[in-house]
Every structure is written in C-alpha cells, then in structure tokens.
Amino acid sequence: MQLEDLNVVLKVAEFRSITAAAECLNMLTATASAAVKRVEKSLGAELFIRTTRQLRLSAAGERYIPNCQQAIQMLDLARQNVKEDLDIVDGELRISVPSDLGRNIILPWFDEFMQTYSGVSVKLHISDSKIDFYRDPVDIALRYGSPDDSGLYGFKICNVPRILCAAQSYLDQFGEPTHPNDLINHNGLLYQLRDMVNDVWEFTHQDYEGVISIKMKSDRISNDAEIVRRWCVAGKGIATKSSLDLSTDLLANNIVPILTGFKPKPTELWLICPSRQSITPAVRLLREHLKLKCANLLKQLIDKSILNNNQIL
Questions:
Q1: What was the pLDDT predicted at 272?
Q2: Is the same domain home to 260 and 274?
Q3: Which one of 7, 24, 41, 177 has the fewest CB atoms closer than 10 angstroms to its CB?
Q4: d(CA 23, CA 80)
Q5: Same structural domain for residues 257 and 300?
Q6: pLDDT in tens, 38-69
Q7: CATH number at residue 111
Q8: Is residue 191 located within the same domain as residue 275?
Q9: 73 and 213 in one domain?
Q10: Residue 153 is part of which domain span?
Q11: How far is CA 63 from CA 48, 121, 137, in A?
C-alpha cells in the first residue's frame, strides 16, 4: 500500500468528493480514483459508498479513516524529527500571500530564501481572501490580521502601521487635507474584500479621545490591493494601506504621507499554519526570514521619518 494513495484517500474523505480531492492534490480525477481503488483492494473492503449524487464513508471507512489519519500524522512527525536532528531543510512550501505584498515585496524575499536553502521549493498562491486550508491548495498562509480560528497555529511577524497617502500630483490639483473631516471632499481609493467595501476610514490622535470615522466617497473600488496602490501612485485619489505595501513608493517619493498626526487603524502580519504538523523546519526558518526582512523594511521607513518607533513596537 502506497503512502501517496493513503493521502488521496484522506483527501477524498475530507472533501467527500474524488474530483475535489484531485483538484486539491493537483492530479487527474482518474488518478485519484485509481488510488482509492488500490487502497480498497489492499484492505479487501470499500471505504466509500458512491451514488450518482454523493459519496460518503462506509462503515469500514468510518473505522479506518481516523486510524489512517493518526498514522499519517505520526509518520509526518517522525520525518520532521529526523530532519531537525540532521538539520535538513527541504520540501515544498505551498504558501498563500496577499496580492500587493506578495507580488511587489515578498517575491524577492522568497528568492533569497531559496538561494540559502536550495532543497526548498515554493508554490505561491496570491490571494487577499481569508484562507480555507481545507479547500485551498496551500499549507501555510501569510495574512494581515491575527487568526480568528483557535484551531490554527499563528506566528506574528510584525506590527504593521497603516498610512494615509496620495501622489503629490493629486494634492497639487485638489489640495491637501488638514483634518480627517476634510476627506469627505476627496476621492477615496477603496479596497473590497468579498462583499465588504472598506469605505469607512478610522483615525486616532493623541489629542483626541475616541476614534474619528469618515465615510469616503469614491469613483474607484477594487478587490485587488495592488490596483488600489497603483491608482494612488497615478494620482487618482487618496488611499490608506499597509506601510509594507506602500514602502517602495514611499521611499521613492512616488507618494507622500498625509495627515501624519492622525493614525489609521494599524494591523499585524501573521504566518498561519493549519496544524502543528505543518510547522516544518523550513516553515520555522521562513518565519525568521520574514521577520528580519520586515524589520529591515520598517526601519527604512523610520529612518526616513515616515514612521516612528512607537508605531511598530
């Protein structure tokens, strides 16, 4: 009985679909179906009851699948322990990263990591959506905001201040706001995640109690964070985004911070794993690599007085 076939069986049990399992494992449906049949032949029992409308576990499958899951987890853990003892860093990292951060900041960081650890390969998934480890073909995810699922394992990479900014060309044409209330007369460049449009911007100020909330008007909305940044650089309006996303353009003076005394709501960058078994030596080293690279980038923004130390502590 092949270990790869057992992994296919577990995915079929998870998705209750051979087609969905095959898509997740990047294989043909026929290949996945053949793997299930080989395992069933080896056991001398059918693990699934198949109908034209659904697939469900048989009585034998209900007994076998939990034991199979435990066995696979034990094998994975033993493999990781051996690699850690021998200082072996290898394997494929299937990681999901945010669109703007992934394309324009993280990409060269992965190249550096893979040059250092030549046994590591990367399969990159670009998405701003909340990750579903049971449906999406990824093992780890880099996301803004701390994980809200207690069943996940998360490693905080850094605090990430948000910055309100615009191109100088836009400010020359429409004027620079001096208070958040002035923003109602400006064009906001808005980001949409699923059905939620981020059109209410919140600010705090050391001399004000509470939060200042502004409902923005806009002629441009996108579900791709990179597009929002590009619009901002092109002088199409005002944006509020992660300082990491904006770092290259801020350091190159393509855009300038505005209302610097008023702070948009900050966020955090987290590396998220679905289980303890997914925290391999390569994942741990990647975590430290990302921490170092983010810290260096944020320091550049501090050195240019775009951020201050208190914002990243």
A1: 93
A2: no
A3: 41
A4: 26
A5: no
A6: 988 888 888 888 877 778 888 888 888 888 88
A7: 3.40.190.10
A8: no
A9: no
A10: 91-158+270-312
A11: 12, 36, 27
Structural domains of the chain, count: 3
Q: What residue type is assigned to position 209 of the chain? A: E
Give the number of residues written for the chain: 313
| Number of neighbouring beta carbons within 10 Å of residue 107 | 14
Counting Cα atoms < 13 Å in the Cβ hemisphere of 6 gives 17
- CA 179 to each of CA 185, 200, 212, 254, 258: distance values in angstroms, whole numbers, following the listed order: 11, 15, 10, 22, 10
Closest among 311, 260, 250, 220 to 104, alpha carbons compared: 250
On the question of pLDDT at 74 being above 80, the answer is no
Residue type, 22: A
Is residue 150 located within the same domain as residue 172?
A: no
Q: Are 105 and 142 in contact (CB under 8 A)?
A: no
Of 265, 284, 299, the residue that ends a domain is: 265
